[in-house]
Amino acid sequence: MKLLKHEIKQDFGNIRKGDRILLVDGVSVSFDGFKALNNLSFSIDYGELRCIIGANGAGKSTMMDVVTGKTKPDVGQVIFGDAIDLLSMDEPSIADVGIGRKFQKPTVFQNNTVFENLELAMKDDKRFFKTIFSKLNSAQKDKIEHTMNLIGLKELYNKEAGILSHGQKQWLEIGMLIMQEPKLLLVDEPVAGMTPQEVENTAQILTDLSKENAVVVVEHDMEFIRSIASKVTVLHEGSVLAEGNMDAIQNNEKVRKVYLGE
Ligand SMILES: Nc1ncnc2c1ncn2[C@@H]1O[C@H](COP(=O)(O)OP(=O)(O)OP(=O)(O)O)[C@@H](O)[C@H]1O
Question: How distant, in Å, are the alpha carbons of 185, 220, 227 from that of 44?
């Protein structure tokens, strides 16, 4: 049964930190007989910042493709919130119920200001061709302001996105996702190409963001993952190899065997 939009909204009305927001259960994906995901199961809680790591080809991108509706698995289930069956929905509907994905390469509007980029990204905002700025109500302005604070770009609100640094563009794009009011954000390699200071700021932004959402970060940068200090899931050959905090992961025998050949 397809849920109506308002029913889906109600579903999240009472969600609290620690409630499960995503369940991936027994998911397998094959490409020409090769299993990119192999009976993959894990769950994410609301208010959590989860890091997903794994060697090249471990299945990280395929997992995100499944959650966002780009790839349909052979078997398994993917449930959002209590009961939203993501496998029965297409990509736009999945984005609409509250799952945002940030790809590696930032795609901000270069000739628009930071503020305008956030405004253009606002959920249900169809005013692209109307005068920007003049007709925002105070709730909308507050929302943009809140987002600019979160991503640390408030002082640059009237600067064109084209002049921002690589890191600032990444943050702006995260801000544009936030304007869509997601409940779950999937972020692909957010710190690739960033300066150490930008990496530090990104850890803070994602940590703050996870307090109001759930955030899943796929990343190779171990220093960054350590600095986030949250739960880590290690994927290997399409399944979960280990899960725990960074210390537990680094001392895990199976992980050491796979990564260090011990
Ligand atoms: N469309 C496809 N057709 C065939 N094989 C695919 C396809 N997409 C992914 N694969 C294979 O599935 C496996 C998992 O790929 P995936 O991109 O999910 O890994 P990953 O963990 O994201 O790797 P990376 O860190 O390199 O991005 C790889 O062996 C890949 O070659």
Answer: 11, 20, 20
Examine the pLDDT at 30 and tell me if it is beyond 80: yes
Higher model confidence: residue 154 or residue 104?
Answer: 154
| Six token digits for residue 57 | 């080809």
Ligand 1 centroid from CA 63, angstroms: 10
The CA distances from residue 206 to 53, 68, 92, in Å, are: 16, 20, 24
With a 6 Å cutoff on the Cβ, whether 57 touches ligand 1 is yes
**Which of 30, 37, 53, 56 for mutating ligand 1's site (highest number of atoms within 8 Å of CB)?**
56
Confirm whether pTM is higher than 0.90: no
Q: Quick one: pLDDT band at residue 78, thresholds 50, 70, 90?
A: very high
For residues 237 and 231, the answer to whether their CB atoms sit within 8 Å is no
5-260 — its CATH code?
3.40.50.300
